[in-house]
Each structure stands twice: as C-alpha cells, then as structure tokens.
Amino acid sequence: MELEYVLPGEIEGRSFEIITKELKEKGIEIPEDRAFLVKRAIHTTADFDYASTMYFSDNAIEIAINLIKSGTDIVTDTNMALSGVNKKELFKHGGEVHCFMADEDVAKEAKERGITRAAVSMERASKLQKPVIFAIGNAPTALINLREMYDAGSFMPAFVIGVPVGFVNVEAAKELIIATDIPCIINRGRKGGSNVAAAICNALLYRIRDTEK
Amino acid sequence: MELEYVLPGEIEGRSFEIITKELKEKGIEIPEDRAFLVKRAIHTTADFDYASTMYFSDNAIEIAINLIKSGTDIVTDTNMALSGVNKKELFKHGGEVHCFMADEDVAKEAKERGITRAAVSMERASKLQKPVIFAIGNAPTALINLREMYDAGSFMPAFVIGVPVGFVNVEAAKELIIATDIPCIINRGRKGGSNVAAAICNALLYRIRDTEK
C-alpha cells in the first residue's frame, strides 16, 4: 500500500471527494441540502451506514442554522463531544457549549434519585434561560429525559441532535424524539457517538462559515 | 419499540452481554485475552466490524498493561481522545495524558514546515524523556511521523494504539506501524476515531482495575 502525497490543507477536501465518489458508486443519493452533514458523519466514522440512517425533521437544517446564527448554546452529554465542537466558530455567533456530566453535584443528585447523570444534566440544561441545542452522542437516557420534560410541558428543547450509540434503549430513545414536534437530526439505529454529535455541530458551523464567505 | 428498564449502574454490563450474545450469533470468536478490548471498541461504536479488523502485535495487551502499571504517559492526537481517557484510573498508576495538537507553537511550526500539526505533535512527544503510549485516533500523519522517527533511529515509541479514521493514507499508515517491531494495537482499514482510541485506553485501564480487585 503506497502513501498518497496530499498537502496538509488538502486532506479534508480529498477525503470528501472520495466519500462523494464512493456514495455515487454505491448508488446512494443524498438530498443536496443535507449531503454536507451526512458526509461529515461518514468522514468522522468511515462508516457509510450513516448515508441511510440519518433522519431530519422538517426544515431541520435551516432551523439549526438559524438557531446557531442567533447565538443559541449547545449542551452535550459528554466532555468528549464538548471537546470536539469547534468553539471558535460557535463563539463567533455568541453561542457557548456546556456539559454538566462531570459536575460533582450532578453525580450526587443522580445517585440519590437513582437516575443517570445524563438525565440530571438535561434538567440542568433546561434551566439555562435561553434556547438550547442538545447534542447527545452517548446517553439514551438524556433523550428519554428530554421527552419526559416535553410530555410534562415543562420544557421544549430548541433542537435535538440525537445520536447516542449503544445497545440498551438507544433505538427506542431516538424514536421517542422523532415522534414529537421537536426539530431534530437523529441517527436511527444503534450507531452514533460523541464524535458524531460533535461532527454534526461542526458540519452546521462550517456550513455557515462557508456560505457566508 | 419499548423501553427496557435497566438500572443506571447496570447499563454497561447489559450492553456487554448483548455484544457477547450477538458475536456468538454471528459465529465470531475472539481470543479470550483480547475479547474485553474488542468488545469495548464495539460498545463505543455499535460497529461489529471491529471484531474482525483489530490487529495485536505479540503480547500486545500484556505489554500495554505493564506500561500503564509502571506509570507510562499517554499521548493523543486530539483533545477529544484526551478528554475520553479515564484520567483518574491512569493517574492511579502515575501516568498522565498529553495532547499537543492545540498548542499555538505547534500550529506555527507545522505551517512553517508544511507538515501536519499531528506530525509536529509526535516530535514533541518524542522529547518527553519517558516512555510513551501513543493513542492515535485521528491523524494518519501521526503514525507516518512515528515511523519516520523509528526508521531514523531517533525515537522508539513504547506502544502505539493506532486507530485513525479516514480516507487519505489511513490504511497505509497503519500498515507502516504493523511492519515494525513497535508493540501495537491497530485497527486495520479505514475505521477508528478519537472515541475508539480513548475506548482502547480505557479498556486497558479497566482491565487492570477489575483484575486487581
């Protein structure tokens, strides 16, 4: 196997060319308005399954982009996802990223109530007093908690990026969000991850940057 | 799709049960001594491909575990991977995690020399004056640079966890490490990621914790 010589600044562009070419070879067509985002999920995972499992609610991309442009904060369910979001791009619009998972009092409250830290973190996020985009790459219980608050009428997320990964309640939790009128981008099935959650945030951020050039 | 009631503390165990069951159903057998690690990669990605693509050099797990136990540091090629490594468990053995990618002078030097930040980061890591486990989940150029230093006789990594993801030189860079006598765990092919790099570190850390109970 030989190394291909690609300049550092051109590696990402070359990667997207390869992804575009292989999607075509596989006969997979992704609607133009969302291809940039699905391709970034594939770029992050080298997994073409994302081409067929990503669900977008009506006008999801337009809604997410408008939220970011108006300074909406992002709340993640892992520090890994927080770490992966391009904070420089988000900050340009006035937004911040939060993750409450590692807060000591979150762990304490979760233990006392017998629920997950992710569920407690969602409740914290619901009290931020501004619209929130949730980027959930790990904990299905985060999505379940958001749905419970929605059902109770106590909180309406501005947007949910729902891509937890795993084997216990992951698929069902994603469907619980899809069944509401919360604007969302969800990767149906078991797959996802903190890396995918961050990649979707960044896809939206780079879309804004690149179309405003 | 119905939610299954699982206590927070039992979700991970239940996930591993499902993975074990499905590996059996697929007729995939993983040698007992490495199953814990391969299953954690699957747990992190919900991708069973990892069952057939993970390469282990001779005695790789024993070597990695002994390095961790003797306080070896870990160097990652992304802040996401750094963020995902269980620092509390690593610190118990005296080890630390480093990532030089976001250092301003690394970016400056990379630009001047026309190489990637990952390559410059590896050179920084080679000067740490102690053995280093590299956990590479993103940049094939990190692996290429490690191989170049190895070929030049200027540096020998103590261990390489080589799981970059992507489309440009990723597969070839992994084979460059496999072809040496550097102890390593490599996920052959395009797949991997910062999440997988962190998961492999954590699999080793939890193995130590759980066998020393």
How would you describe the overall organization of this protein?
Two copies of one chain form a homodimer. In chain A, strands 1-6-5-4-2-3 form a six-stranded mixed sheet, with helices on both faces. Helix content of chain A is 54%, strand content 11%. The model of chain A has no long low-confidence stretch (mean pLDDT 96). Chain A is of the alpha/beta class. The longest helix of chain A has 18 residues, at 194-211. In chain A, helix 2 crosses helix 11, helix 8 (117-126) crosses helix 9 and helix 9 (140-151) packs parallel to helix 10 (170-178).
Residue share in helix of chain A: 40-55%
Number of helices of chain A: 11
What oligomerization state is this entry in?
homodimer
Regions with little confidence, pLDDT below 50 for 5+ residues of chain A: none
SSE string of chain A, helices as H and strands as E: HHHEHEHHEHHEHEHEH
Search tags:
alpha/beta, homodimer, 54% helix, 213 residues, 11 helices, six-stranded mixed beta sheet
Question: What would you say about this model in short?
Answer:
The first copy, chain A, has 11 helices and 6 strands.
Topology readout:
The structure is a homodimer of 213-residue chains.
Chain A: H1 11-25, H2 32-45, H3 50-53, E1 54-56, H4 60-69, E2 73-76, H5 79-84, H6 87-92, E3 97-99, H7 104-113, H8 117-126, E4 132-136, H9 140-151, E5 159-162, H10 170-178, E6 184-187, H11 194-211
Parallel strand pairs in A: 2-3, 2-4, 4-5, 5-6
Antiparallel strand pairs in A: 1-6
Helix pairs in contact in A: 1-2, 2-11, 4-11, 7-8, 8-9, 9-10
